[in-house]
Amino acid sequence: MSSSILHTEKLCKTFSNGGVQQHVIKNLDIEIREKDFTVIMGASGSGKSTLLYALSGMDKPTLGKVFFGNEDISGYSNDQLAVFRRKNCGFVFQSIYLLENMTVFDNIMTGALVAQKNSTELVKKVGDLLKKVGIKEEIWKKYPNQLSGGECQRVGIVRAVINDPKILFADEPTGSLNSASSRDVLDIFTELHSKGQSIVMITHDIKTALRGNRVIFLSDGAIVGEYEMPIYGTDDLKKRRDGLQDFLDGMGW
Amino acid sequence: MIVMNKILRLSWANIKKHKLESIALMILVMLCMMLCASAFGGIIGLKNIFPNMMKNTGSYENYVLITEKDFDDKFIDILKEDDRVEDCARSEALYSMSTNYLNALGKEQSMYMCFITQENEAKIQHSPMETKLSDSEIAAMEHPIYMPYSVRDSMNYKEGDKFEMIYGTRKFTFTVAGFYDTALFDTPNSILKMIVSESDYHVLEAILDKYVVLGFNDFKGKGGTELFNDMLKEFSDYSGKDISGSALGITYEGLKMGVTYTAELLLKFLIVMSAVIIVCVAVMIRFRIAGDISEQIVSIGVLEGLGYKSTDITLSYVLEYILISLAGIILGTGLSLLVTPALISVGEIVSGHPSGSSVSSMPIAVTVAVILAFVAFISFIRAFKVRNYPPVRAFRKGQGDHRFGKEHFPLRKTKKSVHLRLAMKGFLKNFKQNLGLTLCVTISTITIVVCFVMFNFFSGDMNAIAVSAGVELSDLRVELMNTSDAYAFAEELVEIPEIRKAVPTSGFTTYLTAPDYNNDLMIPVALDDFSEAENIFPSEGRFPEHDNEVMITNMYAKLCKLKTGDSITLDNVNVRRKYVITGLVTSATNGGMNLYITMDGMKRIVPTYKPDTIEIYLNEGVDADEIRYSLTEKYGRSVADVAQDRSDSESYEERIRNEAERKIAEIMANYGVTHVEYAIQSGDTVIKGNSDGFIIKSIMNVRSIMETQLGAISIGIAVLTTLFMIISVFVVMIILFILMESTIRKQRKEFGIMKGIGYTSRELMLQLAFRIMPAALFSVAAGTAVGVSLLKLLTSYIGKVSVNMPVVIILDVILLVFCFGCAYIGARKIKKISVCELMTE
After folding, report:
1. If pLDDT is split at 50, 70 and 90, which confidence band does B645 have?
2. Residues B160 and B116 reside in one and the same domain
3. Which positions fall inside the ABC3 transporter permease C-terminal domain (chain B) (predicted)?
């Protein structure tokens, strides 16, 4: 069993809109284990994204605590959280969010240079990573709107992992991609996980969820079920899919 | 109508959405409206002062004052015979440049004064006397005096107050009986003409120079300086002696200029300032519209999809800025209605005359129309770019509009700070926007630098002003009796420990004319050795050293297209000599007619010439008034003094000594005797004495005179330059705030992503602040260069205003820090960008 990299204590997140309060996360205790590929699933509005943002320090909880290792990050200021994120977290978003006015290379360097100083080493590292995810050198100087969605997301992944984050958060990374691109992107995640990268991913898609080794099911802001699987590629895929399908059926999916 | 209603709602919604920016813009429009309408209103109001004054006083349009001893009755006939002269009158007055008065603090202050009787005043003007006192109260008054309105308005004298005039060691106390309007000698900044009783006039007559006053009107367009110069030449030719040095002329233009010129000039500066603000308003409107279009591009596409034409959307922007401007205009109009009467009132106080004007609605209406038209034009031109975004392109957030040229500042080449590099990327990306910023900051810097230098200059010591004016500023200027030997006396003066230097020079007693240049009257500043001068420096060439060399002013050189090395011919009565111009001096005093010449040079054209004035320079910390008193006491006796000194309580020896001095005074005044010694034996006692007490005619405290004459102007300039600096700084601050707001709005998503990947708000704020620095650096450098060049251009005409470059550079650094600070604080809205909100939108 891996040690805990992230855990929460009675985490609550409440939104207020026009005086109406909406409790999205309710007294949630969760533990994310190091080197796990944790997949969070649930129906729309179940609080998946809210939980991801609270865990990753993108947002502050209304009540409760978030621990990164032994460090309580729930009391951090916004700037402290930003420093925390740059040191420890990587993010891959459904909408990718590349900086439109920067080249592919600069998009990654923007994320890298804020955390690391040695630009010569970084340039080499960025190049290696881009090649690894299949982004050819002639694309490096292109701008995001000159790239396909799959290419953009691969760039997004490189940007997320360039600082060797302790944990990688992904919010429906294949949500806006076609099936071929989705597969390529998921293969990258699988490879990262196989090398020991801790990953927390939100998805609606069972194919994507299969890449994880732990599935947490959320309903109404609370964990209602948890399902463990062997590491992807080490078991029979059909059996893996049936197992996960049974679990999800049980959750009312 | 429905479309118009919808456009109005769109505009209003936009204003409400960006309240702070709208308020900032409104404040700038308000300032612009207030300054421009008030200044226009003020100028129109002040325009009435001069015609009102001429009407109220019934004054002649031109005056010539000639010392009584040099006047000949035939001069009036010469004047009447000139076909340019319409009407003339003769009167007389007493005038001195060596008079002082006790100011409100009880301190002696120098002021040029002129005294006239009511009867003589009536010959040249018929202004009614204004008083709060009854006839019986005035009749009971000892030494009543009527003073110009300016004394009441700017010096705060009122009826019944004491006015203490000091001449030499003697004090004359008058009681203010009332005030009157006068066209001639109306303010303490120039000369103050006061009406005294016949008996007091006779007392003053004994000590002050008596002048014949000729007042005359000329046919329009035929008079002016040319008539004045021709007249003096004719008078000199008739009398066979140089009259120019004994004459003082005031032309119609001179009277007019003296009344409102300074106030009008200051008001014109306000209009320039409002023009600066409106340029900044234009730039800000462009920033905001660019930001709005970028932010609302999808909504624009939706509106277009719903059937709005791009013209409708453009009009909604135009309407938005017209509404904001209208709010600013309404507030600005309110303020200008308060400020304009105050400006007119200040103008009245400065000029010393009532204007009889009220606030006119015309300048307000014109300013409103100009501002609205300008705002509508600028906003239309910028907003009409929405036509480049048809619906589909707008839905794609303007994609297709992007042009990807050269990649600037690639991050792979980052050596040091990524923030600095990202800032530079941002700077180049928003290059057009930065051009607008550069324009505004450059204009503001020019204003700040010029105002700062002028402020320092006028609030600094008088030496700087003297250097700029090209005149010698000693501590005391001693005018000697005709019979005195200036060189011998100067040698005697330097023996006094408090005096460090005494330099013989020329007084304003001899003028030269330039026959090749309209017979212009040149006022010689003569010194044996110009290296002795402490405030006269050639801006080009060198000092005159030989008897055929002169320096002239830059202003005159430009006017007559003369340069160093050229020759100038000068006349004095019937003698004509040619001189080589060895150098140019920046000076606007005496209309730039100063002529710098050696004593030998003067003797070459006026063989009988001898210095009649001594410039005295005191040691540091010595009280000029104390020295003036002791010198007057010892050397400044006159026939009148001696006549007044008779007293029954004196001893026999004192009475003998007084009688001897009275005789000496008479001999020196009437027979041109230069030195007298006497020894009288009375019994065993020998009473000895000499004429040393009759050397000085008058002593002027030069600094005190300058303070009196330049005091009000200095304060006015200091106030105005400070106001301009504050407004400029305020404009820069608002522009930077609006620029930051608009940039953040435009790049909200980008900043959200950067926060998401670990950039702190502070780092992003720093990046934004650094982003404007290249524009700020360039603007401040360019603004300083233009400002300093403007000052140099200005000073090449009016005088040398020294620019202390190290101080200006410090000012520039402060400006840059200020710009950085404003941009940094203006970018604080980055803190409000929520990464989550961006991710979930």
Report:
1. low
2. yes
3. 271-390, 723-834
Host H or E run for residue A235 = none
Chain A residues with CB-CB distance to B402 below 8 A: 100, 143, 145
Please indicate if any CB of chain A lies within 8 Å of the CB of B413: yes
Judged by CB atoms closer than 8 Å, whether chains meet at B429 and A123 is answered as no
Q: Where are the beta strands (DSSP E) in chain A?
A: 4-17, 20-28, 31-33, 37-42, 63-68, 71-72, 89-93, 167-171, 198-202, 214-219, 222-228
Buried b (16+ CB within 10 A) or exposed e, B718-727: bebbeebbeb
Residues B51 and B124 both lie in one domain:
no
Check CB contact of B399 with chain A, cutoff 8 Å. yes
Long-range contacts from A68-77, C-beta under 8 angstroms, 24+ separation: A68/A5, A68/A6, A69/A4, A69/A5, A69/A6
Task: Report how far residue B97's alpha carbon sits from residue B185's, in angstroms, rounded to the nearest whole number.
Answer: 13
Report A:89-118 residues touching B (Cβ under 8 A). Answer: 89, 91, 93, 95, 97-103, 105-106, 109-111, 113-115
Q: What is the set of domains in chain A, with CATH numbers?
A: 4-98+165-251 (3.40.50.300)
Closest to B197 in 3D by CA, of B118, B266, B258? B118
What is the C-alpha to C-alpha distance for residues A58 and B759, in angstroms, rounded to an integer? 12
Structure tokens at B204: 């003053």
What's residue A1's pLDDT?
Answer: 57
Residues B222 and B130 in one domain: yes
The whole-angstrom distance between A91's CA and the closest CA on chain B is 7
Question: Does B835 contact A at CB distance below 8 Å?
Answer: yes
Residue A241 is predicted with a pLDDT of 93
B9 vs B102, residue with greater confidence: B102
Of B694, B709, B728, the position where a domain reaches its end is: B694
Cβ pair B411:A111 closer than 8 A: no
Positive or negative torsion for Cα B396, B397, B402, B407 = negative
B407, B763, B835: residue with CB nearest A103: B407
Q: Do A82 and B749 touch (CB under 8 A)?
A: no
Q: Are residues B81 and B203 in the same domain?
A: yes
Q: Is residue B288 part of a domain?
A: yes
> CB of B627 within 8 A of CB of B498?
yes
Distance, in angstroms, between B760 CA and closest chain A CA?
A: 5
Tens digit of each residue's pLDDT (9 = 90 or more) over B744-777: 888 888 898 899 888 999 999 999 999 999 999 9
Q: Is B758 on the interface with A (CB under 8 A)?
A: yes
User: A-chain residues within 8 Å CB-CB of B767?
Assistant: none
pTM (predicted TM-score): 0.72
Mean pLDDT of B637-651: 56
Rounded distance, CA B87 to CA B73, Å?
16
What are B140's two structure tokens?
A: 């009971």
B412: nearest CA partner in chain A: A123
Chain A residue with minimum CA distance to B406 = A141
Whether the CB of A59 is below 8 Å from some CB of chain B: the reply is yes
B422 inside 8 A of chain A by CB: yes
Average pLDDT, chain B: 82
The answer to whether the complex's ipTM is over 0.90 is: no
